[in-house]
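>> received
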Amino acid sequence: MSPDTLVQIPTATDAPSFTSAEFDAYVVHSYARFPLMLERGEGSRVWDSNGREYLDFVAGIATCTLGHAHPVMAEAVTRHINKLHHVSNLYYTREQGELAQWLVEHSCADKAFFCNSGAEANEGAIKLARKYGHTVLGIDHPVIITANASFHGRTLATITATGQPKYQKGFSPLVPGFQYVPYNDIAALEEAIATLDAPTRQVAAIMLEGLQGEGGVRPGDRDYFQRVRQICDEKGILLIMDEVQVGMGRSGKIWGYENLGIEPDIFTSAKGLGGGIPIGAMLCKAKCDVFEPGDHASTYGGNPFACGVALAVCCTIEQPEFLANVQARGEQLREGLWAIAQDHPKLVQDVRGWGLINGLELSADVDITAPEIVKAAMAEGVLLVPAGPKVVRFVPPLIVTEAEVNQALASVRKAVEQISLEKSL
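>> returned
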């Protein structure tokens, strides 16, 4: 076959229908999928294989920053795939350097390491903290403290860092060197540090989310995080912030830590960084940049295609009107959810969040789960995602409009009213 010969690949419009049963016959069953075959998207909307339209308030789980088929991304994808899509990190590429420059200039970091996902970014942070513990702090067995109900990824190290046993079940032995404390509880944290203050086993880092996403959309307490920063400064401990879900404008600021009035020593990014193109980043201050050539690597990490698209996303979100929309739509969404909560006090317990990551918490006294609300909302034309058994998460694209938020709220209200009627609440 000639290198110039184009292979004819069926497209969604000319290929025979592909059913969920056929999908399940070939794909590992590691996801509990909703019975929906999505085929295309535009802006904050997606369409299924039957042509039905949905408002996408999942956005790839806080990943599709600019929504679907955004012109900025379409142009960047086309330009970079036609230029240079991948070479090894044996060489320099302008795109990786320019993305690193943007991230450093728009954060508290001094250096960036690129990978492919949030889990990989957190792996890099864990490795960096361990080496710092050994080489700078002189600790034989460095420990990283994380929070209960946290989520940091699906690799062996990151599920161990994740303070939720359900993600760890069946994968023991877990990676040693982690200890968990309650979130937003400074007394518990101080006690854990004191307990671990031994000649050979000491705390090298504290790893936290500014807002716990998978743990129920629980924002960090500002006073708590400022005290954590003070403790880290006093004891030489590194503060790692997992920004995978709340970073890149999702919180209404470029980085979630900005809502807490602190600066981390290390932080991680992924999800929204590439707007849906796979990329992750671990960023750090110069004082803890202890990696040397050979210490850490990623074949695809920092490839010019992903970096070029991510830089286009970054340059879009830095515009003042962009973050202003995130803040305004977040306030609008929370106000609307509170109105639903006030009309259904037996069903809804709380509404909370930052920017466009928000949670609707269901009452513990009713036998209704978040997936039930998600399914009911899907029937009304809105896609949502659970954050645990009792919290419904709202994470639309950051370009969502006022009219779309109002439409979503009206549909969610119908779903809640239908379930309340069925359950006689």
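>> The first strand starts at residue 38 and ends at 42.
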